[in-house]
Each structure stands twice: as C-alpha cells, then as structure tokens.
Amino acid sequence: MHLLARTAHASATRPATLVTIAASFAYALFTGFATPVQRSLWMVTLYLLGRLVYRDRSPLNTIGFAALCLLAVSPRSLFDASLQMTLLAVAAIAGIATPILQNSIHPYLLASRELNLTAIDVKLPAKQAQFRETMRIFVAVFESTPLHRLARGFIPAAVGLFLRLVELIVVSCVIELAMTLPMAIYFHRITLFALPVNLFILPLLAVLMPLALLTLATALLAPSAAVVPAALTAIPLHFGIWLVHLFAPSSWPTCAQPCRSGNSRPPSAYCLSLLSPRAESPHALLLDRTGPRCGVCRRAAAHSASTECLVS
After folding, report:
1. Using one digit for the tens of pLDDT, what is the confidence trace for 153-212?
2. Where are the domains of the chain?
3. How far apart are CA 9 and CA 14, in angstroms?
4. Which pTM was predicted?
5. Residue 73 near residue 35, CB atoms below 8 Å
6. What is the dihedral of CA 213, 219, 224, 225, to 10 degrees?
7. Rounded to whole angstroms, how far apart are CA atoms 202 and 106?
C-alpha cells in the first residue's frame, strides 16, 4: 500500500513538476542564463525532483548540493562576492528564518484557516486551538449584524495578512543581519534603509513580474496590443523606483567604513611585501625608502588605501 501510495503521489505531481522545471529553464534562458539565475534554477530543479521520489526536502541540503554543482563547474566562483552573498542569503533564510517561523508564526498561520471546521481543533496543540476559538469569538460579535458574513471571511484574512507581514519582517531582518559583514567587506558600507524598502518591494514584485511577462508575450504575438499591459507594468515599476528614492536620501543613516589612518597599512601593501626577496618582513619593505620597489609599493599602498575610503 505504501508503494502504491507513493506511485500515485508521483503520478499526480509529475506533470506539474516537469512543467515547472521547463518553465524555469525557459525563464533562465530568457534572462540570459546568468550565474545568479543558474543558481536559482539548480535549487528549484533539485527541490522539485525531490517531490517526484517522495523524499523529505531539506532546504540546506538542496542549497549545499546546488553550491557543489556550481563549484564543480566553476571553482573560481568560490571567491566571487555574488556567489558568497547569494548562498549566504539563501542559507540564512533556510537555516535561521525558517526554523524561527516554523516554531512561532506558521502554526498560528495554519490555525487561522477554515474556522468553520471545529473538528480540526482536537488535532491541534492547545495554543492553536485556543487561537481558533478566540477568532470565532470575534466573529460572533458580529452575529446579529448585517456584517456577519463579511466578518466571517474578513477577520481570518486580516489575521493571516498580519502574520504574513510579521513573516516578511523576520525574513528581511535575518537577511539584513546576514548581509552586514559581506557588505562591510566588499562595499564598505551598511545601508539601514533596505529593511523598510523590502517590506514594500517584495510584495510589489509579485505583481510586477507577471505583468512584465504578460507584456513580453503580448509584444511577441501582437505588438500593437502590448500598450495596455506595458502601461500596467509601468505603474508598479515606477512606484518601486519612487519607493527607493523615498527611502534612500542622505538623511537616512548609513554606516560607512572610515578611511584608514596614515600609520596603518592596507592589506594589499603587506601582500606586495611578501613578493619582495629583499625584505626580511612586511614592515621592512614598507619602511625601506631605497630601491626601485619601494616607490611602487608606496604607490600601490596609497592607491589601495584611497579605494578603501568611502566618499559619501
């Protein structure tokens, strides 16, 4: 029976899985098959293939296997800032944000559905069952009013929307904290306005992407009729740009890495000193003012120090 159930499950999900993989591959080709898109394609494909064999899909295992595949194809990408930050962000979501949400928000989010089915309460933990009963009490307040039917659907929807907002805040905070160190290392600044922007941009992308694909398909089939979806696409696009300009003025706080003092040496100067056979130590070369190498090292050190200073 277990084998029959597994076969039935695989046969039911196989068409949807194959269509999703094919659509993801087509979208990756359309966007130029860049490295970030390849990473997403690998992860989505591995996750969906796990559904076909009815296996428990661990997000961290999927991310790790996709990273190994990418590094096997291009080992140099290990030192690429884009790969490091992408994997760090996805690993932070799967390894930190997801466990936090599964033990806090998600049980109540599931409990807010199907309030009219009281038989579900006995199968839930006590806190979730009490949460469902509390929402029924709020719905019963409008029992004798004309808004009863509206309240029956509005209150669970409002609670679910609020929990989704909390979920988005938790995920955004986890990503921002995980990206703090890489942004300080590679970009010498930490922007604090990214959190409020993400709260608006991420839901906006759910509207923008389908409209953009609809505009593309209409432009290929009937170019003259693509004006309408293009105008609809421009509305969330310009609204997103306006949000970025709204939250990114100079008045918002930005933590920037300060310039190095004259007594400290940048890391590149010490690396150059290791290549010199005349120097007994990195400090000896930097203090040596004779010979042809000292001028090159001083200029390289000054150039590295200037590039690491942030001009606000």
Report:
1. 899 999 999 999 999 999 999 998 999 899 899 988 887 777 788 888 888 988 998 898
2. 12-211, 267-308
3. 8
4. 0.70
5. no
6. -30
7. 19
